[in-house]
Design goal:
35% of the residues lie in helices and 26% in strands. The chain is α+β, with helices and mostly antiparallel strands and 399 residues long. The chain folds into three domains: 192 residues, Nucleotidyltransferase, domain 5 (2-Layer Sandwich); 54 residues; 76 residues, 2-Layer Sandwich (Gyrase A, domain 2), CATH 3.30.1360. The chain has a five-stranded mixed sheet with strand order 4-3-1-5-9, with no helix packed on it. The radius of gyration is 42 Å and the shape is elongated.
């Protein structure tokens, strides 16, 4: 049970947006890393060494305390949580941390009113700084739970941006936001979306300060964010070398190399095994010919002995036919003559409903081609109908 629970995160990445094959490969690599022991994760994921800039808590702002008067956007509905931030102020200093995996080490402060460069550690043990993360306090992030029609999933970011003035107290150019598909409704016709946004004018000075310091922020996140949340628009994120992609490509090349080696190894072993097989084949060829001769004689004897039994089994049994007729024929029907010859049956008799016998006999097991062999005649003394029915009967197959 523990093993199966450990591998539950390994699933196909959902289509919460358009992603390339490399994105899915990187997602699989990260999910596989969560299943590995902590001491072995760096072998697959490397060391996640990053600079975290933690912004200070801010004071309250009155214009962020109320929702828009016209309500949510058409087609979208709030699903419960509507966390309006209680504080929106820039502050003048932020805390710096050196984060590696899950551990954090304080480095000092970063102030807005200075232009001093950042004095960062060299990395140690050959591990460079991978990225810079700007982290907001939860009070500076407005979060809402919404639901949208399932059809907007592929263009969720564009739809949210278009309706942002209805989903929040701000215009689209005033905020930075990210949207995350958290699941679907019970009926499966709507998606459940987590929306998070922050004021652009509150974080833009810090983004500019980090750019001037030579360490532009690649992520804008907050405490309690969902995995890989980033409020920065894709176009405003600095380009960097994707080491995770290179590692994923290296893993893919390693798998292909192992597959090629697995295909070539049998060819390499063929020369060594072929001589032994040739000698073994020469010894067994004579024995195989004798076995084939004995098998042919045995099959011929078996076919001759079972031919009679097989023919008997293939022949229809009269007892089965009588049982079917007893069940299918209605009351008021008498069989005066029954002939069975090579699967063809002739029935002669009288019945109060002779014309209905055809449909009843067609439903009997093994009966085919039911028809009157001669016209139905009326018996003057009894009023019954005299019939002569012919059909083909084969032994029914067992159920």
């Amino acid at each position: 049970m523990a093993t199966s629970n450990a591998f539950q995160p390994l699933r196909f990445p959902g289509s919460h947006g358009r992603s390339s094959a490399w994105d899915m490969l990187d997602t699989w690599r990260r999910q596989l890393g969560t299943c590995m022991p902590r001491s072995l994760r760096p072998l697959l994921l490397g060391h996640d060494r990053r600079l975290v800039v933690r912004l200070p808590d801010a004071g309250p702002v009155s214009d962020a305390q109320s929702a828009p008067a016209d309500g949510p956007a058409p087609g979208a509905s709030a699903a419960g949580r509507d966390e309006t931030p209680a504080a929106w102020s820039a502050g003048d200093s932020a805390r710096l941390y050196l984060a590696e995996d899950d551990a954090r080490q304080p480095l000092g402060e970063l102030r807005l009113d200075t232009v001093d460069p950042l004095h960062l550690p060299s990395g140690g043990q050959g591990r460079p700084m991978r990225r810079t993360v700007l982290e907001l306090p939860p009070a500076q992030v407005l979060r809402r739970s919404l639901s949208f029609p399932l059809q907007v999933q592929e263009n969720l970011q564009q739809v949210v941006r278009y309706e942002l003035d209805r989903l929040s107290p701000f215009q689209a150019d005033q905020v930075l936001f990210d949207a995350h598909v958290g699941g679907t409704s019970r009926r499966g016709d709507r998606i459940l979306v987590d929306l998070a946004l922050c004021r652009r004018d509150r974080v833009e000075p810090w983004l500019q300060r980090l750019r001037e310091a030579g360490t532009p922020a690649e992520e804008l996140t907050w405490d309690g964010a969902w995995p890989r949340a980033n409020l920065l628009p894709v176009g405003e994120r600095p380009r960097r070398r994707n080491n995770g992609l290179r590692l994923s490509l290296a893993l893919l090349l390693l798998v292909l190399s192992l597959g090629a080696a697995a295909l070539v190894t049998p060819l390499w072993q063929r020369g060594q095994v072929l001589d032994a097989l040739q000698a073994e084949l020469a010894r067994t060829r004579t024995a195989a010919q004798e076995v084939d001769k004995l098998r042919t004689d045995l099959d011929r004897a078996r076919q001759g002995s079972v031919a009679v039994l097989q023919r008997k089994l293939d022949q229809p049994r009269v007892i089965d036919l009588l049982r079917e007729l007893t069940v299918k024929l209605p009351d008021g029907t008498w069989i005066q003559n029954l002939n069975l010859d090579k699967g063809e049956v002739q029935l002669r008799g009288e019945s109060t409903q002779a014309t209905a016998l055809l449909a009843l006999l067609e439903k009997a097991a093994g009966v085919q081609g039911v028809s009157f062999a001669s016209p139905v005649t009326q018996v003057a003394q009894t009023g019954a109908e005299r019939f002569n029915i012919a059909f083909q009967y084969q032994r029914p197959k067992p159920p």
